[in-house]
Structure formats: C-alpha cells, structure tokens
Write a structure and sequence with these properties.
The complex is a heterotrimer of chains A (109), B (137) and C (126).
Chain A: E1 3-8, H1 16-31, E2 35-40, H2 55-62, E3 66-70, H3 71-76, E4 88-91, H4 94-101, E5 105-108
Parallel strand pairs in A: 1-2, 1-5, 2-3, 3-4
Chain B: E1 6-11, H1 19-33, E2 37-42, H2 66-69, H3 74-87, E3 91-97, H4 98-104, E4 113-116, H5 118-126, E5 130-134
Parallel strand pairs in B: 1-2, 1-5, 2-3, 3-4
Helix pairs in contact in B: 1-3
Chain C: E1 2-7, H1 14-17, H2 21-31, E2 35-40, E3 58-59, E4 62-63, H3 70-79, E5 83-87, H4 88-93, E6 106-108, H5 113-118, E7 122-125
Parallel strand pairs in C: 1-2, 1-7, 2-5, 5-6
Antiparallel strand pairs in C: 3-4
Classes of the chains: A alpha/beta (109), B alpha/beta (137), C alpha/beta (126).
C-alpha cells in the first residue's frame, strides 16, 4: 500500500477534468488499496463550501479518500470551517510538506 | 540526529500571474522553517520570479503611497526564503533554466540564483527526499 | 460608451497584486471617466462574499502588510456608481445562495444575460 497526496488547485465547475479525471484517479487509487488524500487548495476549495454543487466530491469521500482543504484558501474565500461539506476537513498546508518529507507520492494538479 | 530532508520544486508560472506562485512559496516557507534543503528548478516563466529589476510602486486606486503599499515582489520572496533556510540550517538552491532566461532576457537575477539545465532538475530529483512539479495551466 | 466588464477568473494573482487586477483596472478606468458595469461569473461570484480574509502571508522575514481586500474593492466600485451583478446560478452552484453578499450587488439569472449584454456598447470578457 502506498501513500498518495493528490493536490487539486482547481474547481470542478470550471475545469471538467478536475472531477472527470483527477477525483476519479484519487478514487481509483483508494479502490486499489492505497492510502489516498485529496488536498484542496486555491480555487480547488470552492466545492468544499456546504451547499455547493459537488456530487463528485461527495462520492470521493464515500470511496475512502480523505479530503482536506487548505485553511488559508478557505479563509481567503470566506468559507468558514463550520460551513464545510460533509466529509471535508480544514487542514494547514503543513500537511503537504509533512507528506513530502515522509516520501509519500505527492502530485499537483 | 535525524537525516536532513531535501525537497525539490519545479515551478513554471511567471510572477504576478497565478495563485500557484503564492502556494509554492507557502510550501517552501514551511520547509525553510524546518531547516530543510530546498531546490527550485524555475522553468519557463518562473525564471522571472528572482528577476532583479522588479520594482515596487505606489497605488492610487488603493490610495496608498509607495511605502504604505509595500508592494510584494517575488524577488524579495526568493531572497527572504534564502535567508530563512540559512537561519535554520538549510539551503535554498535556486536554478533558473538557462534557455528560458535567454528567450525572456531575464538574466539579471538576484544574488544566489544560478542558471542551469533540465539535467540539474533531474539531479535535484535524484538527490531529494521528494519532488513536486507545480506546472502552469 | 458603456462597457460591460465580465470577470470570470478569480484569485489568480491576488496576493502578489494586492487586488484582483480586473477589479483594479475597472477602478482605474472609472477614475478616468469610463462608464462601466461589472458582471461576476464563475468563481468570481465569490468576490461578492463578505468576510474574505487573505491576511497573514509570511515568507521568511517578508510579511505582507497590505493583503487584498476584494470584498471591500467590490463595495468601493459600487460606491463609485458602478453596477455590479453576479450570475445567480453560478453563485448557487458554489453554495452562495443564502450567503451574505456585499451591499448593493445585484443578482442576474443566466436567462437575463442577453438583455444585460444588449444594454452595453461593448463587452470586455476578461
């Protein structure tokens, strides 16, 4: 089992490959038994607001992918912690550096 | 004593264009605070990040003078990270892609920046704990 | 000449620039006597949300003293007489249906866009 961190910097409403490719890649890696975190940053946090149209993100959560959203990107967009979509947790960017230092496979999209 | 970590970043975005630049510097700041060695391979427009002729300006729309505006300059961010890594026992090795520098006329970089080639990026990656490519879109 | 400024890309280089550059250039051209309306669409609908906070950026010993304040920049545009609209469906898709927006921002449905476009001599889609 490998550890993966997939960083998503874009919003699925503006770039179709975000959900159609990258979220699916995260789910597929999890299905294959890997430890997978999808880390949302910049406009990638837009679907993390409670009430946003983000069916695909919700399905990723159900597939066993851990979904984190960058604290600064949330604050920058006025998305409060208590208004996050179910299954999404706020996290500092330190998480990515922790995982890089631990030799996880870290991929930016 | 724990082994010192080395992280390599490949950057592609020109300054003042994309939020990826800010996020990349945030990541490097965290690594610098930890005393990690940091390698940067600046490719394409990213060779402009340490360009020495960047100048701050006042901003009439914001209603602020030159001093009040304190306009961010990526060259200052690079220099600040170089100082931060050294303070914490690390080092920031910033390599600008030489051909990218030539085609942009961006040879005048701040002290500490050197020019190199894709071979340097490969060597960085081979010698690092991990590598992250932050590509332009 | 009445111009519709359509702003679509959002949070693109806002830390380095201390603003959104299209909001900024609208301020500057309004100051130069231009007649503008702003339409926020896509992720830029989030520019109308109150409480955006991009403070606290630090790189080594460099600290940002003047972060972007985009909600205030939008409010200031309205204060200068610029009509600011956001696309209702784009906002709803982003969970902004019941979110408190900057005072004076108007909502327009996608079906209303042809009429809005037709009211302007030029449309500048940034």
């Amino acid at each position: 089992m490998a550890r993966y961190v997939l960083i998503e910097s874009r919003d699925p409403l503006e770039a179709s490959e975000v959900a159609g490719y990258y979220y699916d890649l995260a789910a597929g890696l999890a299905r294959d038994g890997n430890d997978v975190t999808l880390f949302l940053v910049q406009n990638g946090v837009m679907p993390a607001r409670f009430g946003a149209r983000a069916d695909k993100l919700a399905s990723i959560v159900k597939s066993g992918v851990k979904v984190l959203a960058d604290e600064f990107s949330l604050r920058e967009r006025a998305i409060p912690r208590d208004r996050l979509a179910t299954g999404v947790a706020a996290a500092p960017l330190d998480f990515v550096v922790d995982q890089m230092a631990a030799s996880s496979k870290v991929i930016w999209h | 004593m724990a082994e010192q970590k080395t992280l390599t970043f490949a950057l592609m975005d020109a300054p003042f264009e994309q939020s990826r630049t800010t996020t990349a510097f945030r990541l490097m700041h965290i690594a610098a605070k930890r005393g990690y060695k940091i390698n940067v391979f600046a490719y394409e427009g990213a060779v402009g990040l340490p360009f020495n002729l960047q100048k701050p300006h006042a901003n009439a729309v914001h209603g602020r003078s030159l001093e009040q505006e304190n306009h961010p300059l990526p060259k200052d961010w690079v220099a600040a990270l170089m100082r931060e890594t050294e303070r914490n026992g690390g080092k920031l090795d910033w390599v600008n892609c030489g051909l990218c520098v030539e085609e942009r006329g961006a040879a005048d970089a701040i002290a500490g920046v050197r020019r190199g080639s894709p071979g340097d990026f490969l060597k960085f990656a081979q010698e690092s704990t991990n590598t992250l490519v932050i590509a332009t879109k | 000449m009445k111009v519709l400024q359509v702003i679509e890309s959002a949070y693109r280089a806002t830390i380095e620039e201390q603003d959104d550059t299209v909001v900024w250039i609208t301020h500057a051209m309004k100051g130069a006597g231009g007649d503008f309306t702003v339409l926020l669409r896509g992720n830029a609908t989030n520019y109308a949300v109150l409480g955006q906070d991009a403070s606290g950026i630090v790189f080594g010993d460099w600290k940002q003293s003047e972060p972007p304040r985009i909600d205030k920049d939008i409010s200031a545009l309205i204060g200068k007489g610029v009509d600011v609209y956001l696309v209702e469906e784009d906002a709803v898709e982003r969970g902004l249906g019941n979110t408190q927006l900057v005072d004076g921002v108007k909502r327009v449905r996608r079906a209303g866009l042809p009429k809005l476009v037709a009211q302007h001599d030029q449309v500048w889609h940034w």
